## 1
Amino acid sequence: MSLSAYDKAQAEADAKLIRIYEEESRIFKDLQWHEETRDYQWVLFYGLQALDVYSTHRGLKYDCIREGNPLLGDRPTVPHMITHKTIFLAPIWMLQNEGIYTKQEINLYNSMSGVVVYNNFRLLERAKEKCNKR
């Protein structure tokens, strides 16, 4: 074995020991820098997505209501809306247990979805009073 090979192996072993020592001696090693999401937040997230599809479907039964998402067209069917949600929410679903999303982020997503669902039901109530069913 050459002297340089020995030095490289020794340097790598020393670096590994130093990393282990630094990790063990960190003052704040148990401190989490962000709060992880809770299960109820994910249940709420997916529940709001289902309510969005439901409220949109009910609203589209009236002639004065059309879909606001340009990717779906004016009058998408329920299968189209579910497919759209599945495609665009798949990355979130696949990463939800990886610790990537924070409690604050999922709260923001839920707040935005809640506003959308609220608006859908508000428009539905107005449509019942002023519009005709298709």
## 2
Amino acid sequence: MKIDVIDISGKKKGEKSFELPLVSEGDAKGHLFYLVNNYQRAHLRKGTASTKTKAEVSGGGRKPYRQKGTGNARRGSTRTPLRPGGGVVFGPKPRSFKQDLNKGIIRKAFQHAFSDKADQIFILENSADTVVKTSTFVELFTALKKDFNSVSLVSLSDSNAATLSCRNIKNCQIFQPSFILLEKFLNGDCILITEDAFNKVQELYIR
């Protein structure tokens, strides 16, 4: 398929070929999206939640009161999970939520995604990646007649002009080619790919 190459004003400057493999509806597209979405969501989880057990809570070295004669339950420590300020039973500990997923499945899912969004993908030429100005990109999205609140920008670097210009635009999602969030990609009204990132996208998801 052909994708339009545009300048910073939104004018068409040419076309680039995007050679997608033949995809069919028999590939269980919905299930592929489900697998990749779960994989990516798990990858983003920090897994840093942590609680202290009875042995880790400070204090509680002395028996709070004598064994008999008080009418209370027999306590050996004030840090029992049954009392306020005590440890937590079976609480969360730091862990990794990352999953394994075959690269072929990820590639196939994105091939379907690119095919579905073909008419909403634009390539931003390199000469347009020289102006660091948010208002310029807002005007670009307006010229494309797209809602700039739902744009996905795929950029090769976090420090180039396109990324710096778009990062303050509400709901403009910025991704590197190596990790494009499929859910945001599919929900975006417009996908803008910098010319430098385009070759990397083809290498990762198409070839």
